Structures are given as structure tokens and as C-alpha cells.
Amino acid sequence: MISRIDLRGDALPEGTALRDLLPRADFDVSAALEKVRPICEAVHHRGDAALIDYAEKFDGVRLEAVRVPAQALADALERLDPAVRAALEESIRRARLVHRAQRRSSHTTQVVRGGSVTEKWVPVERVGLYAPGGRSVYPSSVIMNAVPAQEAGVPSMALASPPQRDFDGLPHPTILAACALLGIDEVYAAGGAQAVAMFAHGTESCAPTAMVTGPGNIWVAAAKRYFTGRIGIDTEAGPTEIAVLADDTADPVHVAADLISQAEHDPLAAAVLVTDSPALADAVEKELETQVAATRHIEDRIVPALRGRQSAIVLVDGIDEGLRVVDAYGAEHLEIQTADAAAVADRVRNAGAIFVGPWAPVSLGDYAAGSNHVLPTGGCACHSSGLSVQSFLRGIHIVDYTRDALADVAHHVVTLAEAEDLPAHGAAIKARFPGDEQVSRGWKVPEGK
Q1: C-alpha distances in Å from residue 415, one per residue of 116, 315, 400, 423, 428
Q2: Whole-angstrom distance between the N-terminal and C-terminal Cα of the chain?
Q3: At what angle do helices 48-59 and 192-201 cross, to 10 degrees?
Q4: Which tens digit of pLDDT belongs to each residue from 430-439?
Q5: Does 99 participate in catalysis according to the annotation?
Q6: Per DSSP, what are the bridge partners of residue 189?
Q7: 236 assigned to active site
């Protein structure tokens, strides 16, 4: 059901050579880019009419309007199963605790007497949030997008989720109920690349946004790439991933269950076990057979995901080698199920989120740990972070110098301007100190030095 990669015995290669040995899904955003281009341009030129046409083409429903009526949000919340409502409210509460602690405050550095630089943090003016609605419904993604934006102080936000034929063209009612719980009243029935285009260009019903965040399929990722530079994005999210670093202390029942939990997302989902224990590898393989047979979404998601080239059991000589492998892999979700798991987790450098020990499975992080589940995929954890309050803030430097403070450093500025052959830069300084020979000359090495 799942392949093996044996990296024992020989010294592990470095850098990209090691990454190339590891399993990864085929996810060609560049190829998808040309297919989303006409969609994005159609939304640019035709606005809501294009969104309505694409909803009919891709989602099988003819919309009267793209914006979701306020009454539909209220109705969805009223009809929400009380147990689901309680779970969503607890997820929101925990996410707020974690993300509120991420807030930034302005800080002033007194560089010299009379000269200071203040860094102030300003939220993005308006954000478009995307909640997927394809194979599954993800109200949890509404929470993970909205809470950090709200805690950052974003003054305007809108959410898009694909229209559903089974719900008269509205997004899934649990998505709408989550929006109502969070106070998001601007919601659109739009999915895929066309939703990203709506946020980037704006339409008759939706004002343009400065940023788009949220996971989605390859068409959403391609549209984000298409608009990068025009809008800010969080990441080009690819198929979900779990890597488990485990030794012989791990419970194979837990490990198998966690691999399956990610495999049920999508046939391209990646499930990777890295272990120095052949006995654990054997036991996990047996557990996969047993547990997969007892669950849902077997043939359309789980089995293709586990059998795909993106999933494998990777055998290594020891935990040190295992750490090198998981750092090279840079998993979206990384579980550490080893002896002294906290110490091992502390040594990890590349992961979207790390889950320590047997009682912190990825499923907890998906819903109710308080952490964010919008995380970098495809190895991007080596340079990118998950969604946070910081994602929605911009640091702006405020430079405040008196005449004396500028005079004290003016000759250095002139010298550097001349060294870069930018005389007008230096002239802008000299104009403020006419007749000052030291400023005019710039800085010279004193004689005898």
C-alpha cells in the first residue's frame, strides 16, 4: 500500500541531492498558470457576469448574484448543529489566544541624539480570504484565515467559497455559519481562480483587496502566482503533507492513523514516515491495511494518496539521520514520535508546524490546538512560515532626525553617494548645509592613518 525508501548504510547526500531522493507529489503550478490566465482576464473585463458563468461551468449552478445575502448567513448559524457550533466556538477561542499573543507594537530606536527610527506596524487595508469547498467542507479554514487577520486589526475583509449545487448556489452552510460566528458579513459564492481574480481586480459587487490568503487547489495556487505583485499572498499552497519522525517507542496504531488522516484529504496528499526501526515500519504497514479498510474515502482519496509517489516509509540509520531527512523534506506538518520527543523537536529547522509526542496529532492542529493550519507545503517550510498575525502586518520605518543629527553624519552620506556614483544623492545633503566644507568634501581618511 505504501512504498519504501531505504537510506541506511551509506552517508546521506547534502542539499538538493537528498531532497531529490524523497517523495513529493507532482504539482506543476507553471503549467496551470496558462489555463487560469483567460479566467483571470475574463473576471477583469466582465466582472460579476464572468463569475456567474464560471459558477455554471465549474460548479454546475446558475447564480442570480455572487454576494451571499446577510439572511443566508444568519439562517446558517441558526440551523447549525449545536455540537458543531460549540466545537467551532472553542476552536475560535483557542486560535484567538495564540494569535493575540502575536500582535506587534511600535518600537523607537534612538540612533543618536536627535536621530531616531521608529518601526510601526500597520495592518493590510483589505484582505480576501479563501475557504475551499471541493471534496470536503472546511469551516476550520475560515477560522484559520479570519482570526489572525482580525487580531492584526485588518479593517476590511471578505471571504469567498465555491457555490454548492446542493445548497442553491450558496457556499456550504457550515462555512456560512463559521463566517457568522466570526462576524464576517461580506461573503461571496465564488471558487477557484475566478475567486482570486475577483479579489485582485474587484467586480461590481466586490471591492478589490490588497491581499489574498487561504488554501486551495492547483487553480487557486496558479491564480495567486498570476497576481503576485498586484496583490500580496500567503503561499501557493500545494497538496497537504504529513511527515512522522519515529523510533521504536512509537505506537504503530497512532502513526498509521495519523498518516491516513492526511491521506483522506486528496489523492495527491503526502504521507511520509521516517524511522530507524524496521519493526515499526512493518507494524505500520500492517496497521495501514487494517485501518484503511475500516474508514471512508478509500478508493478516491486514501489509497491513491498512500500508493502515490508522494508517500513512503523512509528507513534511516538513526534519529540524527532522520532529522537530516525531515529537514530536507520540510514538511507542512511534522510529528515527532520518539523517545525525548521535545528535545528532538527542538532540533528541527524546517517544518510548517511541529507536533510533539503521541498526544499532539496533526488533527489537533487542524482544529483546536490554537495553532494555525494554513502552512507552507512542497518543501517551502525551509523559507516560509504559516499564516499568522504577522502575515497581515506591514512594518513601516519612520525616520526623524534634527538638523544637528543630520549634520553629524552628513559627510558619510555624501561619501557613500559619491562612491556609488549618485551625485544627486549627495547634493540633496549638501543643499541643506551650504558653505560647510566638511559636508562638501565628504569623509576623507585623515593623513597619517
Answers
A1: 22, 59, 21, 10, 13
A2: 74
A3: 170
A4: 999 998 877 8
A5: no
A6: 161
A7: no
